[in-house]
Hints:
Layout: H1 2-35, E1 38-43, H2 51-54, H3 73-82, E2 87-92, H4 98-109, E3 113-119, H5 120-123, H6 130-135, E4 139-143, E5 152-156, E6 160-164, H7 170-174, E7 178-183, H8 186-202
Bound molecules: zinc ion.
Zinc ion binds near residues 49, 51 and 64.
GO molecular function: RNA endonuclease activity producing 5'-phosphomonoesters, hydrolytic mechanism
InterPro entries: PLD-like_dom, PLD_domain, PLipase_D/transphosphatidylase
Keywords: Hydrolase, Lipid degradation, Lipid metabolism, Meiosis, Membrane, Transmembrane, Transmembrane helix
Amino acid sequence: MVAMWTVKVVSLGVVGLSLSLELLFWLFSRRRSERVTNKVLFFPSKVACVEHIFSPTLPHSHVCSLPHGVDTSFSRLLRYILSACSSLDLCLFSFSNMDLSRAVLLLHSRGVTIRVLTDRVYSAISGSQIGVLRKAGICVRCDVSAVHMHHKFAVVDGRMLITGSLNWTLTAVQSNMENIIITEEPDLVQPFVKEFCRLWGLNDSAQDLNSVTD
Length: 214
Ligand SMILES: [Zn+2]
């Protein structure tokens, strides 16, 4: 009889313990997912003024015909990019969007280390911002391979990955159907950090100073 009660008590204990462990695990994973950024943005983005993102205290003199105070996919994307404190690595096929260029130049002026790896052919097309970035002293390398450097990803501070179908152009932002994932999951971010370093190393460092696309 005593033995049976002991078995019952022990099994109850085991059940209780596994339930508590499960609860702890659930709480832990909830806290973790609250901490780590994981977002999806779809485009085309609503067209709205993004001036307040660059200058949070908009001057009274600011007048434009676009809607104000609207949160859009594009304004969110700009905020994620502008959250960079120490580094921004860009691996982009096409870069002609003026607002994104302005964001990169602003980070550069704040002392954020910026590296841009881009497609040689597309860096030279009309409207490309690559020459502007180079002139500002930003380190740009063009892919030297015979195929297109077709990536569209950014790594912010080595901890946040922004990747998807979106080229950094006005058409992609305002007209095309596109997607972007923003994630801080180390299992996803780290391979991109590694791949960026590999591609950066593959391309001649002598290019940093050449102005072939200016
Ligand atoms: Zn405005």
